[in-house]
């Protein structure tokens, strides 16, 4: 019997029901990296952490098999190192629609799922896809499964426990009799993942700081849904460019600030938007007769230029350290400022350089010397190590905008990949971020692929509670649960008494009131104090899950 191939086969009956899922053949280390990143992505997204598997055969494409997989594909996923374990990943396809390549009667482009005819053995989907679409991971043996689970415990950012895992030996033994890799595959395609990963870090960090106040809530909304034109503008000059950056992963000011040369971005679609600032960005309130507006616009330009430079540094392989990247950027960009702003930039740079050693001053003194959100955000960037360290840091001299600007810088530098699981523990956050990152990657690549509606935006607790003026019993109960769980001194008790005479007695220093009937005792929270505690609290993730369940039944 002739050996069938992936790109040439006998005619099959059609039509058939579209497959609910596709099978990606990989190894357990690549699997864990994709789970940590929140994206099913091509080798370019792994940096030097990639082990050859089926993804490497079609750069920029995700090969998904139906029903069976070639034995050669399984073998190829573990050939690079003896410690690799094969893994077959089931990826849900119900939300996918748009142009893909299909192998069956030759290699052809079709629109998934409408144009499938049942002859397809394999589809090639433009990368990336959301890791939240991973329904299960299938292992060859219990030994392979246990090895993967043990290795995952060595990493603080691999959510393997969120994915179903099972053993199915037949998937690895009843393989397709087809050569692998097939000849005549498609040309490589760009698949931007670095900008989406940076955007994912920003989404998470702005959610984690979203209880700070109304500005924080607004910034969080812009981070998650920048395409929502109904959103009010962010009422803070330095954050005015947030929406544009979250759409494209670049503000365009990294190379516009007096620097020569093209962006170092490895993603062609991202690099193309870096050639010039977005229309209207940075001009809010700025004019030749408005010095304050000019200063605000210059600070906004410096801030987003630094964000751009950090993003480009990450894409280039993050050699060296992020602090040097910021210092080099300030050196180049400050030459475009007027004399007064140059002096301020020079003072900031001197402070940042001093933080590379023993500064000899406290953080509070540094914030006292530098009053702008731009300067304070950059000082925080030099003072704290990573996103988790920033979340745990507090100082009375910091303002809401300072923290939010710092959250953006840290989110871009660490990206979603760099966040430990404890910072991803908000219910629904991983799915919401994963889908939005993949959708951003598809948009930047211009693939035309539709991933369906994103999961609902995750709202900060402050937004869910509102201003407290019209709380229902549900919100009151959630607020009491939160205050009690963390011991906040903001609970008061209202005792309602009916008409009658009451007798007060004092015995042994204790007062007793004799009442007729049963009084109504109602615990309440003091709103002002409650929101003050909420703004600075590090809320236990189990408590937060319970409170969110109460607020969103």
Helices, strands, pairings?
Elements: E1 21-27, H1 28-37, E2 39-40, E3 61-65, H2 71-76, E4 86-92, E5 98-104, E6 106-112, E7 122-126, E8 129-130, E9 134-139, H3 142-152, E10 164-167, H4 169-173, H5 194-208, H6 214-224, H7 242-248, H8 268-272, H9 291-315, H10 322-333, H11 339-354, H12 363-369, H13 373-383, H14 387-391, H15 400-414, H16 429-445, H17 461-465, H18 473-486, E11 491-496, E12 503-507, E13 510-514, E14 520-525, H19 527-536, H20 541-551
Parallel strand pairs: 9-10
Antiparallel strand pairs: 1-4, 2-8, 3-7, 4-9, 5-6, 5-7, 11-14, 12-13
Overall average pLDDT? 88
Going by helix content, strand content and strand pairing, the class is alpha+beta
For the termini, the CA-CA separation is 59 Å
Q: What topology, given as strand order, has the largest sheet?
A: 1-4-9-10
Unreliable spans are 255-289
Strand fraction equals: 5-15%
């Amino acid at each position: 019997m002739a050996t069938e191939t992936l790109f040439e086969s006998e005619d099959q009956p059609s039509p058939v029901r579209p497959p609910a899922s596709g099978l990606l053949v990989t190894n357990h280390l690549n699997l864990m990296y994709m789970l940590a990143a929140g994206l099913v992505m091509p080798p370019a997204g792994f940096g030097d952490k990639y082990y050859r598997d089926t993804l490497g055969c079609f750069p920029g494409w995700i090969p998904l098999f139906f029903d069976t997989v070639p034995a050669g594909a399984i073998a190829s996923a573990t050939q690079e190192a003896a410690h690799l374990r094969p893994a077959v990943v089931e990826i849900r396809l119900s939300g996918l629609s748009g142009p893909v390549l299909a192998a069956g009667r030759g290699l052809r482009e079709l629109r998934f799922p409408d144009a499938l005819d049942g002859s397809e053995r394999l589809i090639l989907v433009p990368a990336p896809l959301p890791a939240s679409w991973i329904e299960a991971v299938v292992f060859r043996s219990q030994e392979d499964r246990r090895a993967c689970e043990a290795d995952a415990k060595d990493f603080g950012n691999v959510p393997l426990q969120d994915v179903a895992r099972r053993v199915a030996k037949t998937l690895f033994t009843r393989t397709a009799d087809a050569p692998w890799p097939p000849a005549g595959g498609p040309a490589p395609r760009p698949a931007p993942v670095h900008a989406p990963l940076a955007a994912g870090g920003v989404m998470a960090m702005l959610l984690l700081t979203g209880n700070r106040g109304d500005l924080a809530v607004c910034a969080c909304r812009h981070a998650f849904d920048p395409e929502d034109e109904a959103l009010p503008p962010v009422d803070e000059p330095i954050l005015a460019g947030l929406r544009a950056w979250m759409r494209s992963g670049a503000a365009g000011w990294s190379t516009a600030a007096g620097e020569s040369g093209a962006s170092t971005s490895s993603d062609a679609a991202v690099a193309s938007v870096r050639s010039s600032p977005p229309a209207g960005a940075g001009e809010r309130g700025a004019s030749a007769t408005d010095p304050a507006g000019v200063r605000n616009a210059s600070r906004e330009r410096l801030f987003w230029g630094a964000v751009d430079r950090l993003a480009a540094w990450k894409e280039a392989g993050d050699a060296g350290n992020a602090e040097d990247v910021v210092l080099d950027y300030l050196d180049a960009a400050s030459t475009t400022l007027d004399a007064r702003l140059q002096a301020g930039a020079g003072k900031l740079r001197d402070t940042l350089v001093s933080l590379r050693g023993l500064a000899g001053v406290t953080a509070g003194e540094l914030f006292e010397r530098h009053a702008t959100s731009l300067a304070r955000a950059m000082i925080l960037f030099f003072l704290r190590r990573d996103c988790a360290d920033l979340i745990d840091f507090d100082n009375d001299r910091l303002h809401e905008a300072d923290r939010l600007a710092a959250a953006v810088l840290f989110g871009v530098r660490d990206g979603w990949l760099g966040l430990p699981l404890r910072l991803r523990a908000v219910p629904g956050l991983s799915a919401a971020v994963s889908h939005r990152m993949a959708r951003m990657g598809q948009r930047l690549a211009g693939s035309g692929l539709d991933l369906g509606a994103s999961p609902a935006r995750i709202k900060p607790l402050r937004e869910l509670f509102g201003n407290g003026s019209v709380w229902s019993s549900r919100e009151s109960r959630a607020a009491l649960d939160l205050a009690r769980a963390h011991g906040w001194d903001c609970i008061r008790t209202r005792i309602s008494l009916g008409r009658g005479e009451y007798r007060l007695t004092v015995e042994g220093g204790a007062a007793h009131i004799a009442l007729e009937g049963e009084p109504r005792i109602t615990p309440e929270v003091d709103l002002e104090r409650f929101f003050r505690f909420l703004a600075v609290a590090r809320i236990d993730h189990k408590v937060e899950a319970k409170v969110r369940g109460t607020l969103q039944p």
